Amino acid sequence: MNSEEIVKELYFKAIKSSGAGGQHVNKTSSKIELTFDLNTSNALSDIEKQLLSQKLSSRLTKENILILACDESRSQHRNKEVAIKRFLELLKTNLIRPKKRRPTKPSKSSVRKNTEKKKRASLKKTLRKKPKLD
Description:
Layout: H1 3-8, E1 11-15, H2 23-27, E2 31-37, H3 46-55, E3 65-70, H4 76-94, H5 108-128
Antiparallel strand pairs: 1-2, 2-3
């Protein structure tokens, strides 16, 4: 994954932000909406695209477009930086392939210890019972 090439493929849109800011918020478009088209990306391989579409399926639109919004700051440039940082972090975390689980067997000594422990517990409980008067 080449971060610089991916950042070149991003599309940004400035929107009027909601929340605190007084008159300033009504005049400026400080909220940034970042969009990334997964299908047309040249920076990602087909395997990476497939992995991302599976892992980010809940965040993608029907056209496989990822949309991130940021309105933390009153500065449009700062919001753009934060959105890019979040986007790259999202890609990095979702491109990690989990290690394949290797099934393991318990060792013979652990199996033996387990059965001995169970026998001791069962003996303890049988000794608690009242004796039979036959």
